[in-house]
Amino acid sequence: MRLLEDLYVYPWVSPQENNANTVFIDGDVPTLIDPGHAHLFSHVIQGSAQDGIPVDKAALIICTHGHPDHVEAAERFDEGVARAIGKKEYEYLQSEGRELFMMTGAQAPRRPFRLLLQKGILNLGRRRIRVIETPGHSPGSICLYWEEQKVLISGDTLFYLGVGRTDLSGGDVHQLAESVERLAKLDVECLVPGHGQIVKGRQTVRKNFEVILREFFSVNSM
Question: Residues near 137 by Cβ (< 8 Å), separated by ≥ 6?
Answer without folding.
Answer: 65, 155, 156, 157, 163, 164, 165, 166, 168, 171, 176
